[in-house]
């Protein structure tokens, strides 16, 4: 049983006079076994939330707390966050020249677990998970992110999540750039992780379509750097029909009042 707790989180980007507050007091609790969808318009700060939890150096925490099972996440290095069981899909978005997917995954698993996984079971696990995501075995020998298509990047993220078995997984725009078939395959990968049990999932998305495949327990509407409404899956349906216009208008009035 794990709990990720975000309390009154304030985050800025930029330095000195250019500093701009992006997150303006985020409160959120994700427990293992729960799937939370964060939904909001472009530019509302959803990725900033994900990057801040990941420990991206561009984002300055100016207030609030993030804890995982009571441990201060904000005091941890990026590696410590991974070892603590946090998985952030876009943690390593860069090309890693000369490092194959296969070596990368094994190095990541060794770092997270504190010891190298047993070779025989590891090879089998990688094969099984790649097959589950309908990935060509040759993909394992390609260099990380080098020439990956949008769909390959997303599958690679979900492959990492499958193999690293996190306690809390944060997936940012996992649906972007995927065609319908790829979306289904990737969603099924996420659902297998949920079915394995004991993982908390924070699914960040602009569009409702991924929620047809991954059913959230809770939906949070995110506008202008904070959560403005919360509900169950029915809230996603309302957003599908009505969009974010009413929330955005409301938040502008508050901001200029
Ligand atoms: N590194 C950065 N430097 C400057 N502005 C940033 C940076 N990251 C995010 N922002 C700004 O913060 C706001 C929220 O961005 P983002 O978190 O990417 O939103 P979303 O993921 O909801 O589309 C935007 O106005 C964006 O321009
Ligand atoms: Mg984003």
Automatic annotation (TrEMBL):
Pfam families: ABC_tran
Family: Belongs to the ABC transporter superfamily. Ycf16 family.
Protein name: Fe-S cluster assembly ATP-binding protein
Matches recorded under PROSITE patterns: ABC_TRANSPORTER_2
GO MF annotation: an example: ATP binding
Domain ABC transporter: 4-249
Domain of life assignment: Bacteria
PANTHER family listed in its UniProt record: ABC TRANSPORTER I FAMILY MEMBER 6, CHLOROPLASTIC
Record InterPro entries: AAA+_ATPase, ABC_transporter-like_ATP-bd, FeS-cluster_ATPase_SufC, P-loop_NTPase
Keywords: ATP-binding, Nucleotide-binding
Keyword ATP-binding: yes
């Amino acid at each position: 049983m794990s709990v990720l707790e975000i309390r009154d989180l304030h985050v800025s980007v930029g330095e000195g006079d250019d500093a701009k507050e992006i997150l303006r007091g985020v409160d959120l609790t994700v427990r293992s076994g729960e799937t939370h969808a964060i939904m909001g318009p472009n530019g509302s700060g959803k990725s900033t939330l994900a990057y801040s939890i990941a420990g991206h150096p561009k984002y300055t925490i100016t207030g609030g707390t993030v804890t995982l099972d009571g441990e201060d996440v904000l005091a941890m290095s990026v590696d410590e966050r991974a070892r603590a069981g946090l998985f952030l899909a876009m943690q390593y978005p860069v090309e890693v020249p000369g490092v194959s997917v296969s070596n990368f995954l094994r190095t990541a698993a060794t770092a997270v677990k504190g010891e190298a996984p047993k070779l025989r079971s590891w090879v089998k696990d990688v094969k099984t998970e790649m097959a589950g995501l309908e990935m060509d075995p040759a993909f394992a020998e390609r260099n990380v992110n080098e020439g990956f298509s949008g769909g390959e990047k997303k599958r690679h993220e979900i492959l990492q999540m499958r193999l690293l078995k996190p306690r809390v997984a944060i997936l940012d725009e996992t649906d972007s750039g995927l065609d319908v078939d790829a979306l289904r395959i990737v969603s099924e990968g996420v659902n297998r992780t949920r079915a394995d049990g004991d993982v908390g999932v924070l699914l960040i998305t602009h569009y409702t379509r991924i929620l047809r495949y991954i059913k959230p327990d809770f939906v949070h509407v995110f506008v202008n750097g904070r959560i403005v409404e919360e509900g169950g899956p029915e809230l996603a349906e309302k957003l599908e029909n009505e969009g974010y216009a009413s929330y955005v208008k409301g938040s502008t009035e508050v901001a200029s009042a």
